[in-house]
Structure formats: C-alpha cells, structure tokens
Amino acid sequence: MPLPTVEHCCCCVDLITAGKIMGWLGVLNGILSFIGSFNHIGNLLAAAASIALSACWLYGIEKSQPSYLLLNVVLTTIGIVILYIADVIILLVAVYIATLSEKPKELNDFPLAFIVFVVILMTILATYCWVITNSVYAAVKERSKELPNVYHGVSRGVCQDASKIPA
C-alpha cells in the first residue's frame, strides 16, 4: 500500500515551496533551540541535529536529491508512530480518570475534555505534516527522474560520455 500524498500543501501551495518553507522553519527552530540550550549539552546536540537535518532537507529539495530527504521522512514516520502510541495512552488515562467515582476536586470534566480535544487536534495536524513530508519526498523523487544523467558535473547514474567527466 503506497503512502498517502497530496498534490498541494494547504490546497494551494506548491509542494516544493512548502518543502522549502518547512526546511527553513526547521533551521530557524534549530537555531533558536541552539541559542536557548547552552546550559544543557543534550539539548545543544538535538538543536545541532535539527539544523543538520533541515539543511539536508533544503539541499535535497534544491538539488533534486531525494536521498537527502529520506532520513527526515523516516524520522518523521517514527515520530508519528510514537505520537499515535502516546495518544492512545493519553486517551486511556483520560477515560480512566473520567470513570473514577471520586475524582480529585482539581479534575473536572472540562479540562479533561479540553486535553482530549487538544491531543486529537495536534495528532491531526501532525499527520497532515507527515503527509506533506511524504508528498514533498515523492515530488522531489519524481523531479529527479526527469533530470539528465549528468547533473552539475557529477554522474547521476550511467554516464553517456565518459570523456566529458572532469578529472
């Protein structure tokens, strides 16, 4: 079964443009996280990894190299699976709390319903972002097939004229 894809992001934005926007937002997020995490080495490394992944994402889109996008697609897929598992746990806890006969006074039904609503809404948005990520990858992969075999002096498959390869 193929992964779900869309033709446009948000009904009107080209997928390549949407991918570049996602990449630059990832770089910006990584830079802001990097600036705010000088006290914690783990956060610093995560911010650096975020910047590197976003830079690879942008490079892959710009140069039509789908292999540079693949790690981001795989990590996004793993993240969405973890999100679904966490959602099930959160919803089970919410149902358990809702069925308690004697609830603590600070827990009433409105905050619990609001938490469930936010969890469902964030899951829907994250799933849509995952579909966009897969769609951008598919678009770049398709675009890379349309390019000639030699791209900026670097062989992309079988070279048609070996005498023209720079030494």
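(the above was protein one; protein two follows)
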Amino acid sequence: MGVKDLWKVLSPVAQKSVPVKSLAGKTLAVDLSGWIVEFRSNQTVPHLYLRTLYQRTTRLMKAGVKLVFIADGVAPECKRDTILARNKDGFASSKPHRQWFNSITEKCFAVLECLGLPCVQAPGEAEAYCAWLNNTGKVDGILTEDADAFLYGGKVVYKNLHALNKHEYLVDVYDIRDTENKLELTRETLVAMAMLVGFDYDKGLRDIGIEKAQELFREMACNQQDPLTRITGWRTNKELERLSTSTEKREAHCKQCQHKGTKNQHEKEGCTDCNLKISCDQSSKVKCSCGGVFHEKEKHRLELRCYQKAIKNHSFPNKKVVDEFLHSTDNLTETSFEWKRIDINKLKNQVPWVRYEDIAELLVQLKMIGLSCFTDAESIIRPLRILNKCQQNFVKCFEVQWTKLDVDSQSQGDCYTFIVDQEPFKRLYKNVVVQYQTEVEEENKRKERERQIKRGKKRQATGTLDGKSTLMTDYFKVKKKSSPPPPEVE
C-alpha cells in the first residue's frame, strides 16, 4: 500500500529489528484498517481475524506499549475509483463505500474496547488521522505498513511487526528526521514522488519509477527548485514549453570544456571562453557564451522528458491528491484518549476461545510493567507463593502461584502459575519475596542437617557390618618389613 517502492528508498535509514520491549511506555497509533486487510487476506476461516487481533494486541500490551486504534472513515473522493476496483475483485460490496469494512471494524472495536483500549473511527483515512496524532504529539509513533503515513505528516513509523519467538516482537523503525537529513526527502518531496510514480489513488506517469523520480529530484536540487512546486506548475510553465518546442539545432561543442567549437578547433585555435589561445581547459567552470538553447535543455534534461509525459496525461497534476495529503487534517479538533479497565465478562463473551487463565496472566503482566489502569478491584490477583527461580529470554524470573479470578469456574486447580520478571515482583510484593527467601533458607538448613546426619551414620557404621568387622587388617596379617641390621664396626 502507499507509494510504489517507497519503503525501498527509505530502507537505508531504517532501524531494523528493534525489540518491541524497548518501546515500553510509548503510545502508538495503530492503523487498524491495515491490520484488518492483512488478517483477511491471509486467512480463510471465518472470524479467525479476531483471534489474531487479540493475540497481537495482548502481546503488545504485555510489552508495555499503550495502543490507540484508528479505523478508516469516509473514503476521500480521489480514492473512489480504487475502492470500486477492489469491490470488483470480490473483496467488498458493489457500492463505492466501506459498508462491508465497517461491519468488521465494529467487531474489532468490540474486542479492543473490552481490553480497555481507545478506538476511534477517523473522519477520513486512518493513516491520515494517525499521522495527525503523531504530528501534534498525541502519540509517539504510528504502527502501520502504509508509507502514506509520512505523506500525511507522520514523524515516526513502526513497520514490519513480526515475532522473534513466543514472548517477543520485533519491528522496524522509520524516522522522518533521518529521511530529511540523510536522504534529503521531505514530506512535500514524498508527495511529489507519489504524483510521479503512483500510489493507491493515482497511477502516476507512465514509465516513471522510484529511481527515475529520485534522479529528477537531484536534478531539481542542482537547479535550486522545489520538486512539488515545480511539478504542480508544469502545465503553466512557459520555460519548459519553450524548451520542449524549440527546433534550434545544436551546434558543435567541445567534449572537454563544453564550449562552442570542436576539440580539434580548440587545439589549433584555442578557446575564447577558456581564455586560452591553444587547446582548452578541461576543468573550466565558465559557462558557454554561445547562448544556445542546447545548454538550457541539458540543464533540464530529465525534467523535460517527464514534462512531456505529464502534458500528455490530461489528469496530471491531480490537485485533489495534493490537498488530501497536505490539507485533509487541517480542520481536525483536539482529542483525548482514556485507557479503561479490562472488562473480563464482556471480553470472555467476545472471545470465548480465550481461557480465564490467559486473561489472568494478561492482568498480572500489566501489573508488573506498571499499567495498572487496565485492572480493577474485582480483577486483582494476589500472589500466593514463589515456587522457584528461572530465566525467560535471558531475564531472571520467578515462577509464582496466584489466586484465581472470582469469575473463573472453568480452570482446574486452586491457583494459577505464571512466570514474571524478578525486579518488578520484588518491588511490588516484598513480603512474598521475604517469605520465599525464608523458605529457601529453612530448606537449605534442613538439607544440611540431613547431610550431616548421613555423614554421622556413616562414621558410626565404619568398621562393622552386621556385627562383623570390615577392616582389611582383620583378614590379612600385615607384617612389617624388618629394617636391615646396622653394619658391624671393626
């Protein structure tokens, strides 16, 4: 989705495979519409997308990330043809709106709201609203696969969320500051790139790809021109019209100094512009004084090629696209989010395949990382005792027994057993840790006493076996070797 091959351009400045745990404490806006499309395209079982949504969301919550979910609203006018084309593929209804999508969104919202997460339906595109939240400082970043987030004004985008193992996610991080400083691509330049190469709303210009667009922007930078301003003004640009229609023939110019005349003429007669009577200066920076149109055409060589293609495309430039990316969020009003307590009963009704024990573990892990806003008095789970120490992903942990949820009548046993990090558990439940340390000390003392008792019994039993001697000297007479007599003294 988004601008064709834009991620390839931005890839050199991305931070690859960043652990999601390092984002603990950050607030991210999630492009829920992108997730739904991803889930639905990869799954054929009905409602399996809800299971995937629950699993991915809870794992992010356990990592300490606060989430805000944004869904698509009314499609912009410039995207109408795209939606109709997708509908013809059988993925939606035959009408140019998102009725089919809204029904799925409502089901996702129902699950997410039970988890206490804020859900918002954007007035337009979800990535546009996410970018506005990021640009105004309401969230720290955007979790999406759509590169359009940068064109709408996003600052930090988190892409390619994938699992490292059962307990940890990794993600790639893209920052607009790195894009501007290292690649010299601003938001406006990216919009100009989208107009040339195409994206979800527009096919762009024929035979212009991402590499040719970058080459064009470098040419414009040398000419000190702003790409977006220049491209949107092509139809009324008299200079490019004059150069493209000029029939003036190119006069011979030296390949070494680029001045009028051939190389042989310069070697014999010299070059006026180089101010030499013999030969010419290859490193000369003096412009040719012939005044030919050829030099102007060479200065705008690639731009003229793109300009001629743009003039043949009657829908170029599509100013609705520019307005959508740069001005669609101008009239949005201030908003605030509230993270609520997890409603266990409603959650169980929405996701009946989830066990109470899994919900209890989620509450425990949220408590460990300090997100107590998701728990309430009814869902408090108290630790009973620490069973032992262990490690998980090279992190020191405790294996702890916890009280069961009051509403849980399905799980077997009288308690739950969860693994938690040692450090937060020590801080939250000092008494339980002291009790465990006392039990460990007493157990060590008991084992030491048993070892001493066993050692004492062995000493007492040494030398006798069933009342009989077991010493080797009782079975064999050991004769001491007599020392040789001293030599006689004469």
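Reviewer note on protein two: The domain at 6-193 is CATH 3.40.50.1010 (Rossmann fold).
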